[in-house]
Specification:
- 2 copies of one chain form a homodimer.
- Chain A contains 10 helices and 10 strands.
- The first copy, chain A, is α/β, with parallel strands linked by helices.
- A 7-stranded mixed sheet of chain A has the order 6-7-5-4-8-9-10, sandwiched between helices. Chain A has a 3-stranded antiparallel sheet with strand order 1-3-2.
- The longest helix of chain A is centred in the C-terminal third of the chain and has 22 residues.
- At the A-B interface, helix 1, helix 5, strand 9 and helix 9 of A face helix 1, helix 5, strand 9 and helix 9 of B.
- The first copy, chain A, binds a DNA duplex (22 and 22 nucleotides) through helix 1, helix 3 and strand 2.
DNA sequence: CCGTGTGAATTAATTCACAGCG
DNA sequence: CGCTGTGAATTAATTCACACGG
């Protein structure tokens, strides 16, 4: 057992709320964070909720409600201090300190994920790549040496890994997930198209290309159906006729 | 303008409901679909909601409520016919007919996505790869020739493309999205970390690695916080003590 | 004034609990 | 008798609308 992750971040954001923040809000914070980062980079000092909301693609009321769950960080009549809010959001999300991530499974997808340069800028640090295939072990990918999955425990403890990304075939995902949990990893991002069974207290998020496409297929289909219905609905003509009046 | 997507799928599932199905339900259908496929493959004929729910990682009440939005497809005292339900779900999602997809941006990620073999089995068909870089155009990737993005309109019309996957750098995503919309594509899966601005009637889903990791970071952090609180809460000892009693 | 923060109202999603069918 | 389908109850999320501070 090595030192657990550095306990309290430097910023003044701490236990405060962190609890009872709605999940739906949490899901949107990364978007706000990214938009803020781009504003700061462009030298914008302060931004009103309406503008920030527009950039994030949400309504301004919702944005204000979301932020109100973290505290009162705005100035009435002005808006939010970009720099300050950026720091607050980072703190709440837990990416203001060290946030070490490993990728397990260095196939096509693992390769691509490892090569995604934007991670560091967004507060998470890639600290290890693991695979079981001798064909990959020992290779260097994105500046990291691919290690044997047999070394999993060692890597997790050395680096105090917080999150593991699973980018491996569906049939191995459950077994690897169990090993991760046994090593103490409690957050898993699963790219394999299976539902992982994990004990309480472990958080899993699943990202599945095919599922997303199927959901989009539904919307596409529904749209065609309602378009058909619209042909019966001649109100559209009013818009055209008003031009002549 | 070429023939629009084949109008009505062969199955008896059609306009029926399709409307007023809650979004949260739609988001879960792909999971049910995959679990059912695996049951059918294993020769299971019929499955009760409790079992199906367990495999899908949801509560049985929710599963039944979800299915009830599509119709009454179960048999009381028995459960659901796997084969039949599979067909119904495919129909509702719109993957029982042709569902042609293109990938725009054949970098590391696009490569990996193109190579994902599971798509066909899940009802969507990869029909084209596009990129703007001469270094990639003309190469064969996953059995498809990479075409010039200048041919976008041609490809979309030839193949009657329903969905486009964006796997390109953030700075190009908005421009390409606009071109897609102009070509008539109304469903976009966006892997770039930007919020796309699209007209009403176009559906965009965003998949962002960094955002997902940040959300997991939040949960990891919150867990540590509550664990600390638990140190004050000595009830755990009861469990240990009971062994001796 | 302008824009935040927030109660109150609305709408969506989940869970409960049980009537009723095979 | 077991399991579906569903109203009713609960809980979560979103939107409204406006009081209040800078």
């Amino acid at each position: 057992m090595t030192a657990r992750r550095s306990f309290a971040p430097s910023t003044g954001v701490r236990a405060e709320a962190t609890k009872d923040i709605p999940q739906a809000t949490i899901d949107r914070l990364p978007v706000y964070l990214r938009v803020l980062a781009s504003l700061v980079e462009r030298g914008v000092a302060t931004v009103p909720s309406a503008h920030l909301a527009q950039l994030a693609g949400v309504g301004s009321a919702m944005l204000r409600k979301d932020l109100s769950h973290l505290g009162s960080y705005g100035t009435r009549g002005v808006g939010y201090d970009c720099d300050f809010l950026l720091g607050q959001l980072s703190g709440v999300l837990g990416v203001s300190g060290r946030c070490p991530v490993i990728i397990v499974g260095i196939g096509n997808l693992g390769h691509a994920l490892a090569g995604y340069a934007g991670l560091r800028a967004r507060g998470v640090e890639l600290v290890g790549l693991l695979d079981s295939s001798p064909a990959v072990i020992g290779q260097e990918v994105a500046g990291h040496l691919v290690r044997d999955i047999a070394d999993l425990t060692a890597v997790v403890e050395e680096q105090d890994v917080a999150i593991a990304v699973l980018a491996l075939p569906a049939e191995h995902a459950q077994a690897v997930a169990e090993r991760l949990v046994a090593c103490g990893v409690r957050s898993i991002l699963n790219f394999a198209p299976v539902v992982l069974r994990v004990p309480d207290g472990v958080t899993v998020r699943r990202l599945d290309l095919a599922s997303e496409l199927q959901i989009l297929a539904f919307h596409g289909q529904r749209r065609e159906a309602t378009e058909c219905a619209d042909l019966d609905d001649l109100d559209h003509l009013d818009d055209l006729l008003e031009v002549t009046s």
